[in-house]
Amino acid sequence: MIILCATGNIHKKAEFTNLLPAHEILIPEDLSLDFQVEETGATFCENALIKASSLYSQTCKPVIADDSGICVDALDGAPGIYSARYGNDVLPPEAGFKERCALLLDRMSTQANRSARFVCALVYYYEKDRFVVFQETVEGRIALSSSGTGGFGYDPVFFLPEYNRTMAELTNEEKNRISHRGKAARRLSSFLENV
């Protein structure tokens, strides 16, 4: 089945392609669609639903959308839903995740409590006003320094004690098995098999 993914992020497209191999994953760019959505929700779930329903209203095709981010306990859950925009108040407009990770490490430099989690809310919107939501997490810690070249986003600063590596140091297979997005996608895959 063809499933549209409500993102412009090619890394997310690649991850969902690996996580849902029985389906063809397309993003708006693949269909020459102009897809810009303002994420005005107060939770990961609300933002994922905003993106999914918006793309569904343009196409009337099944859509997946996720909203995900890193939540750090010592920062009262920040960056949270603002993970992709973290530091916009102090970073230059062209800043990417390398700069955002550096900012997070700087703000955590004096914190003893380094516990954190990645959160993923994954919405499958398949008919008008019909959708399901799967929300998953993966627990870890904020590393003392950035390490690894795999993954994307905050993966280089998210340390997994049971692996003694950051998320960016895992293989794709390891990451997909334990990640927040991997867990949510497996629940979605099981749902799709039974619909």
For the CA atoms, what is the radius of gyration? 17 Å
Reported for the largest beta sheet, the result is: 7 strands, mixed
Average pLDDT figure: 96
The neighbouring-strand order within the major sheet is 2-1-3-4-5-6-7
Question: Percent range for helical residues?
Answer: 25-40%
Order of helices and strands: EHEHEHEEEEHH
Shape: globular
Describe this structure as you would to a colleague.
The chain is of the alpha/beta class and 195 residues long. The chain has one domain (2-193): Maf protein. It is built from 5 helices and 7 strands. 30% of the residues lie in helices and 25% in strands. The radius of gyration is 17 Å and the shape is globular. The model has no long low-confidence stretch (mean pLDDT 96). Strands 2-1-3-4-5-6-7 form a 7-stranded mixed sheet.
